[in-house]
């Protein structure tokens, strides 16, 4: 087995070719679902993974592996866009805020960038956006999820609110912050990943 690694910046997506005999596969490691908040179109995880998929296609890979191990999550927008690289279109995740009705986040782009064999690697530290992507690929029967028995189980979104914004008094000094759960994710099949995580199709013992 040989690897031809093409690295981007350390925290960004990076890809490699894996050659076994006459077979060639591509693997993309994604440490997190990142965005450039100053210019989303300049850099985000979805567009970076799309570029790596295109590079691997040009290399003639026969299958693709997306490595989400230790990926703690990140941008919801990027995970929806990334899922769209592998399916024609349709719902990716449902989000509920408070007592409101669930809001469905869809991939509306009918283009499929990669329609070949797909594997998603996960472990017990794959969380949040990683679980959304793994669950969507599983529910669409688009990929095989391989790794730990289940992922982390974080199906919620928290917002951090500095207490200084609430208590306006210099005598208290730095009061720290409070973390509030504001949203909950649901799979497109209606199930929740909170605590349950995403169960792998193939469990690989540690």
From TrEMBL:
Family annotation (Pfam families) = Peptidase_S41 (PF03572)
Please verify whether the record's keywords include Protease.
yes
Q: Where is the Tail specific protease domain?
A: 1-205
Q: Which UniProt keywords apply?
A: Hydrolase, Protease, Serine protease
Task: Identify the SMART domains for this entry.
Answer: TSPc
InterPro entries according to UniProt: ClpP/crotonase-like_dom_sf (IPR029045), Peptidase_S41A (IPR004447), Tail-specific_protease (IPR005151)
Q: Which PANTHER family match?
A: CARBOXYL-TERMINAL-PROCESSING PEPTIDASE 3, CHLOROPLASTIC, TAIL-SPECIFIC PROTEASE
Q: What is this protein called?
A: S41 family peptidase
Organism from which the protein derives: Maribacter litopenaei
């Amino acid at each position: 087995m040989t690897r031809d690694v093409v690295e981007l910046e350390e925290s960004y997506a990076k890809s490699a070719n894996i050659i076994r005999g006459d077979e060639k596969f591509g693997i993309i490691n994604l440490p997190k679902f990142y965005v450039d908040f100053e210019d989303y179109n300049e850099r985000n995880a979805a567009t970076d993974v799309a570029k790596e998929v295109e590079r691997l296609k040009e290399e003639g890979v026969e299958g693709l592996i997306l490595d989400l191990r230790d990926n703690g999550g990140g941008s919801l927008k990027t995970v929806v866009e990334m899922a769209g690289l592998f399916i024609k279109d349709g719902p990716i995740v449902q989000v509920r805020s408070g007592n409101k009705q669930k809001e469905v986040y869809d991939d509306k782009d009918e283009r499929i960038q990669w329609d070949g064999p797909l594997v998603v690697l996960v472990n017990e530290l794959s969380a949040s956006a990683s679980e959304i992507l793994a669950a969507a690929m599983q529910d669409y029967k688009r990929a095989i999820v391989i790794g730990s028995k289940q992922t982390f189980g974080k199906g919620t979104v928290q917002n951090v609110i500095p207490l200084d914004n609430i208590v306006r008094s210099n005598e208290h000094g730095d009061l720290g912050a409070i973390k509030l759960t504001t949203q909950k994710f649901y799979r497109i099949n209606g199930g929740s990943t909170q605590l349950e995580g995403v169960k792998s199709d193939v469990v690989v013992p540690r």
